[in-house]
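Hey,
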Amino acid sequence: MNAEQATEAIRAIRFVERAGTEVLEVAPGRCVLRMPFEPNVNHFGSMYAGALYTLGEVPGGVLFFATFDAERFFPLVKSSQIHYRRPANSDVTVEATIPRQDVERLEAEASAHGKAEYDLVLELVDRDGEVVAEMTSTYQMRTHGSLR
């Protein structure tokens, strides 16, 4: 999957499409996404908090499908917490990574037990490199058929 294909996939979610969210880079174990400032301006003139939350949530799926075998596994978000540190007054980007050793551990655990949990900790940064929000999400990687 390249960045253009990943952008097309995430834009199947209508809000993500309307917000203009874009995948800039994608590879196994890593992705970078951008949320444009326009059209995501709130009534105070900074980026809407829901757009920032979306930018912190969407990489979990992009990273998962770029890294894991979707024919064997699928992701679920169990929880997310965001800390808004400062107003965002420009486009915002986020980089999500998962180390190879974690990938191997999660695949082995999910294969053995039907599921495995992991946290994704992200920093959302503005065009000047300032952190505007921090987000931590707990994901559960499941094998197909494990929800029955």
